[in-house]
Amino acid sequence: MNNKKNLKIIVFIIFGLFLVYGFWYFKNAIEISSYLEPDVIATHYNGSNFVGSETCLECHENIYKSHLETAHFNTSSKSKKDHIKGRFTEGLNELDLMSVRLKMIEEEGDYYQLSNIKYKTKEVVKSKIEIVIGSGVKGQSHLQWKGNDLYQLQASYFQPTDSWVNSPNFPENALSRKVDDNCLKCHVTFAEPKQESNVSKSYDRERIMLGIDCERCHGPSEKHVQFHRSNPDALIGKFVDNYKEYSRQQRLDACAVCHSGLQGQQIKGNPFSFIAGDTLSLYSKNYRNANSNTKLDVHGNQMGLLSESSCFVNSSKMDCITCHSPHENQRGNADVFNAKCLSCHDVETVNNVAEGQEHNVSQNCITCHMPLVPSEVMKLKLEDGMNEIPVYIRTHLIGIYK
Ligand code: HEC
Ligand code: HEC
Ligand code: HEC
Ligand code: HEC
Ligand code: HEC
Ligand code: HEC
Ligand code: HEC
User: What is the pLDDT of residues 94-109, one digit of tens each?
Assistant: First the structure.
């Protein structure tokens, strides 16, 4: 009798232990598999999934951290206090234009533009700022959703004057203008179309990856993350692009997709179809290709200008990465850029510069050879009655300027 009772208790305990073990096992399995399977943020047309840069942190910590400081990463965001640069305080928050008065206000952490057309004195249109475009080096523009469409608001923030301006080329009285994917295509990582069709211009508001993040330049990386999490000892990157194996044109195209003018003529898919490693000319091109490159505007066309430069034409390897480190904020770091010039040029051999001045290695090369040039297309109106002023951008037409 006693033996039977003991047996029962033992069986019971064993069963209990199994239960606990089973529970522990499944919990762990779920944790392991959710570790191996990162959350998917959006899906590219080629079927591969985006997982976001926070996933990269655990293995590429240094790159991840320095990338957070770049203009790329900060080039678009939801309108948050720590990101929005314009002034919303009384006295600094107004813009008075010929036919419209604009006022920028903050209410409970949200930001709005109030517009009042002067001949309709009583009517005030209130527009919510939802997406901020621009890191703020030069300025920021604001977008608002109406249904599935994006509209740009009339007032933009201009850093050099620390004030509100009429957005570049913005028609007076429009208050907001539809921009489709025209800003998204160069200022975000990816946007998933609303409809099945790849050519869609309206995107799922919940599946836009703001900022230019790792996967814009390295492609959707779910498989790469899965592989390296399951194979922690693997030392060679798998399922990820390798820039070192790209041709010069492929390396250039990966940047040129956003840095060679508007690329307004879509040949294949939509602006997000192209990924690094592809050939850009199969996807999009600029209108009026017949124009000489020397007439290109300095705004947003570093590729066109650089490719006309003697440095580029006469060296077989030069591309954007020759001078720019893709994961670092290098703005204003003259030493870094001068060292790049000096890696190819021996200035001691270049003598008798203008008016008897001589070259020396301590000069800032770009002040003379890549000067700031006023943009013809990026012009801003500061206030009523004033002429438009151009935005100055550093030219990539490296050369001798008098
Ligand atoms: C579990 C670890 C792990 C995670 C997570 C991870 N990687 Fe990697 N990645 C590696 C390893 C290991 C290599 C090979 C060694 C190296 O180049 O650092 C690598 C290499 C790379 C390379 C260079 C490929 C080459 O051959 O030149 C790129 C680009 C890259 N990873 C991008 C990413 C991006 C983007 C993410 C986030 C979406 C990411 N990685 C997440 C482990 C990881
Ligand atoms: C603007 C485009 C761009 C963005 C954004 C970007 N990369 Fe890169 N990345 C590059 C290019 C170009 C190279 C090749 C550099 C070279 O060949 O010298 C590279 C190289 C790499 C490499 C291999 C070489 C190295 O430097 O170790 C890794 C790993 C990598 N990137 C990870 C990342 C991660 C992680 C992020 C996001 C936190 C990221 N990249 C964001 C363009 C980008
Ligand atoms: C998805 C479009 C896109 C791609 C791809 C892209 N860029 Fe950019 N880049 C931008 C935009 C937009 C800005 C303006 C950022 C800002 O200040 O808001 C920018 C700014 C820059 C700047 C100025 C940085 C600063 O500190 O102000 C440099 C340099 C640059 N890009 C180089 C590159 C290089 C090199 C590549 C290729 C490896 C590349 N970009 C790929 C869109 C892109
Ligand atoms: C074809 C790519 C492209 C498109 C389309 C584009 N941008 Fe840009 N944008 C850039 C690049 C590249 C830069 C930075 C370098 C330059 O000015 O040449 C930039 C810079 C900016 C800046 C200044 C950021 C800073 O702080 O320096 C703002 C603001 C901006 N863009 C807003 C917009 C808005 C709003 C739209 C849509 C109406 C738009 N952009 C469409 C490529 C583009
Ligand atoms: C990859 C190598 C390389 C780099 C980096 C480079 N150059 Fe050059 N550059 C050349 C070559 C090659 C030529 C053709 C003339 C020659 O052989 O000296 C040239 C020509 C020039 C010229 C003469 C232009 C003309 O129209 O006659 C100037 C000025 C110049 N470079 C300035 C610079 C400056 C400034 C930098 C840095 C911002 C720079 N280069 C970076 C390779 C380079
Ligand atoms: C010979 C060196 C060199 C090469 C090659 C080069 N850049 Fe630059 N780039 C510079 C320098 C120098 C600056 C000015 C940096 C500063 O202001 O601190 C600059 C600035 C920029 C800016 C910011 C312009 C502004 O005024 O806001 C962008 C965007 C940019 N480069 C993109 C590119 C792209 C894209 C490529 C390839 C097509 C490229 N660069 C190739 C040297 C170079
Ligand atoms: C004060 C302005 C200024 C600065 C700063 C400057 N240069 Fe020059 N550079 C010139 C002028 C002007 C010429 C044309 C000289 C001539 O034709 O006699 C020139 C010519 C050149 C040439 C072409 C020489 C040739 O034989 O055709 C190169 C290459 C060059 N500079 C590189 C550099 C480098 C690299 C730096 C930075 C260390 C630099 N320069 C700084 C003004 C400058």
Answer: 999 888 999 999 999 9
